[in-house]
Design brief:
Strand content of chain A: 5-15%
Low-confidence stretches of chain A: none
Strand order of the largest sheet of chain A: 2-1-7-6-5-4-3
Radius of gyration of chain A: 18 Å
Structural class of chain A: alpha/beta
Oligomer: homodimer
Chain lengths: 308, 308
Amino acid sequence: MAKHSRIEGVLSPVVTPFGKDLAPDAGRFVRHCKWLLKNGCSGLAVFGTNSEANSMSVEEKLKLLEALVTAGVTPAQLMPGTGHCALTDSVALTKRAVGLGCAGVLMLPPFYYKGVSDEGLYRNFAEVIERVGDDRLRLYLYHIPPVSQVPISLTLIERLLGKYPGIVAGVKDSSGDWSNTKAMLDQFAKSGFDVFAGSEVFLLDTLRHGGKGCITATGNVNPAPIDEVFRRWRSAEAERLQAGITATRAIVQKQPMIPALKAIIAHFGNDPQWRAVRPPLVELGREQEQALFGELKANGFTMPGLAG
Amino acid sequence: MAKHSRIEGVLSPVVTPFGKDLAPDAGRFVRHCKWLLKNGCSGLAVFGTNSEANSMSVEEKLKLLEALVTAGVTPAQLMPGTGHCALTDSVALTKRAVGLGCAGVLMLPPFYYKGVSDEGLYRNFAEVIERVGDDRLRLYLYHIPPVSQVPISLTLIERLLGKYPGIVAGVKDSSGDWSNTKAMLDQFAKSGFDVFAGSEVFLLDTLRHGGKGCITATGNVNPAPIDEVFRRWRSAEAERLQAGITATRAIVQKQPMIPALKAIIAHFGNDPQWRAVRPPLVELGREQEQALFGELKANGFTMPGLAG
């Protein structure tokens, strides 16, 4: 597949709505996904860290993915997270994603054991690729050491890219460490390896160094301004636009990220059920919410067209 | 349920054999489980860390558990690990374990998110207990911060024990920190909360402070001598017996534990397929094996009756 046909731009790791019984709510999920695609997201990285993906069973994720496609969301705009601790789970969800025609999959390393070798991680990704056995697979590696505690090293990327060029398609770097993102860009961007920043804070820098966009939590609530940085990164306005989205991010991340995103959607969409999170997460308290909404409003934040 | 009917003694977190296709091998699994029960284990903590439990799907674990019971292993000797990142997975496997009549379940906290609150962890365990909704449930908390990175605090235990006395039955402490095990014993052992050391290194100390035994990796290969410490901990021989099992442990843990256990079973059972591990683990290299077997033999180590 030629490089230009790959997904790029602003992707949102879509937060997952739960009902009162904590079951995933496909209706609210589809509505939020469609709002995101109308408001600046070029793609949806469903089942990411911010989606509470690991708090759901494989079956629950399969159902949500199928609900999205059935509801008319274009699979070429989807990059579901499909990496699990269990090889067989990763294979099952990845196979289904490829079968549905998804743009790619974003794959965590198995994250239970710590201090594992690059050889072991290589075998994991290679085994998934071989078992899926489909040239349409586009695998994006998910480097998020602050949460997974299992990093994806440059050496591992080099080895995977050497063995599976075209299939191993890129990375989301959620290390929060620009020097690591830059090293990935410097070393691999020219080989058709698409680097996405894990936060919009590094979006402009990433684009200037040959990256393809960002996959960012706050894409759930602030997609249009982030997309504007993506579309106008070569313009004279780029720095000012970047400063704007960085400021919004700074407000949101004063609170625990996932409950904060859900509280914002609940508040601006006038839909309190959106606050629900699965354990071990806990929703924001009243005071946390008031501080968050107050600062966002003072900053001119809106979510146009969200409230049904 | 009266406290004396609870499981105690030496439990092995049974290593899981895989075939050439890396599928779980129920035949070899049943044989090893029966060998363990004949050779000193009073119970089997299948699906623990050393079982590569998180490297298997829920379905794969259900099949192994059912194979054990079908093969005649007494469910009252089983304490399967049933804690997953996904609430629905934990509920599914726990329900089945209780339905089969297992002695208890050993439950990891959800381990993807780090730095979560005790409130969030409390909700996780409480939600599982409520959804399983069965008075026969005996839930043992699994504290293994070096791997899970999500600790189970004394405060959390106190709250769970207050709300679900009799159901919340104990803990496996794999912190490797005796002062933590001792604090658990001092604070909760008299409330009918059964503390198991996570390694036989602390077995004698644990028993002397009111604990119930140990659930230990090396129980897979050295069950009889460990059981002897359990049976004779009040004897004049106790210190000497403890020194012996501590010495064997020290040899094994010079190598990565899970591949080492499997290599030992492969070698002493003359069954090379036992070496197989799932990614992200990697089997021992030839030199590691030779060092391991050499030291074990020099120390008089045997696994009587293992080779078919």
